[in-house]
Write a structure and sequence with these properties.
about 350 residues; globular; MetI-like; transport
């Protein structure tokens, strides 16, 4: 006799359960029966699906629930793939192009080009020297190619996050209803474990397609730039908006001439967080063939090569410092220009 037989017997549902009396006994009940003692109230299991299934086979087990979800997803897979394939194909082209560019351009051209970008963003010679030292160190320990692959993926995915995230944040700031409907989605994207992003994508795309890891990185990293764009525009002083209205500015003029410039510090903070989260996800995405320093970390874990794992981890830390310092220097310039 199962623990929860009394519920179905009391409600007269035994016929619906498909048995004349009693269901499959749980392991706990079998042990109790063998020992000749009824289970105490203290040991009563929670009425979960599996425990209710023991009393009534008509109730699905948890395993049947997960199998049903899996079969449902597999049933929609071809339709989803038909729709998503052409939409996401440009992402594969961008990632392949960026990887090809960063790997084929000689180091004596690529490194000065990166340093020029750093100087234009920060206007700091000291930061340029620091970044140059870090990149040359990575090249010195033969991690240059891996670092360039990681940077290429981050540049593409972060740029797409900004191109998609800023307009979504602006739209959210202009509509309370849209904000209320989008925030639960952002909460879900932000709280899902990073590995979970990869599971449905593996079913939809081949592991040889760059968009497989590109989509996972974008979904994981796009949240901060959306949230902080929305927050930055909503925090613009109401008196400034009223002054803009008094001057007869249109909504478009207010957005581009007042709200976005004043919200730029928050937007840049969101871009900084998006870049850092992209870097974190690139390492995890190495599980599904994303190239870069994450491949070395994965190799260190698989083969228990401690030195490989530690040195590649140091390379990731150096890249994180470079990206963080450069974006913060750009943010500081924006803040200084607005004071």
């Amino acid at each position: 006799m199962a623990t929860y037989d009394f519920i179905f017997d009391g409600l007269g549902l035994r016929g619906w359960c498909g048995e004349s009396g009693g269901g499959t006994m749980s392991m706990q009940d079998l042990i109790a029966k063998r020992s000749g003692e009824a289970p105490s109230v203290w040991e009563t299991p929670f009425p979960s699906l599996d425990n209710l299934h023991d009393a009534c086979p008509a109730i699905a087990q948890t395993r049947q629930l997960t199998t049903g979800l899996e079969n449902g997803f597999l049933g929609m897979k071809d339709s989803l793939k038909f729709v998503l394939d052409p939409i996401t194909q440009p992402l594969s082209w961008f990632l392949s192009g960026a990887l090809n560019l960063f790997q084929t351009v000689p180091w004596f051209i690529m490194i000065p080009a990166l340093l020029i970008v750093v100087f234009l963003a920060s206007r700091s010679s000291r930061l340029v020297v620091t970044v140059a030292t870090m990149i040359l160190f990575l090249a010195f320990i033969d991690h240059y190619d891996y670092a360039m692959q990681t940077l290429a993926i981050i540049f593409v995915c972060s740029a797409i996050c900004v191109l998609l995230g800023v307009p979504i944040g602006i739209a959210m700031s202009r509509s309370d209803r849209l904000q209320k409907s989008v925030i639960p989605i952002l909460d879900m994207l932000q709280t899902l474990p990073p590995f979970v992003y990869l599971i449905p994508l593996i079913f939809l795309f081949s592991v040889t397609e760059p968009k497989l890891y590109g989509i996972a990185i974008i979904l994981y990293a796009i949240v901060p730039v959306i949230r902080l764009t929305d927050l930055g525009i909503r925090l613009v002083d109401k008196d400034v908006i009223e002054a803009a209205d008094a001057f007869g500015m249109t909504d478009r003029q207010k957005l581009y001439g007042v709200q976005i410039p004043l919200a730029l510090p928050n937007i840049m903070a969101g871009v900084n967080q998006t870049i850092m989260m992209s870097l974190a996800m690139v390492v995890i995405a190495s599980l599904v063939s994303a190239p870069g320093l994450g491949v070395l970390v994965l190799r260190g874990i698989r083969n228990l090569e401690l030195g490989v794992g530690l040195v590649s981890g140091l390379g990731i830390v150096l890249l994180a410092i470079i990206l963080d310092r450069v974006t913060k220097a750009a943010l500081a310039r924006v803040n200084t220009a607005q004071q």
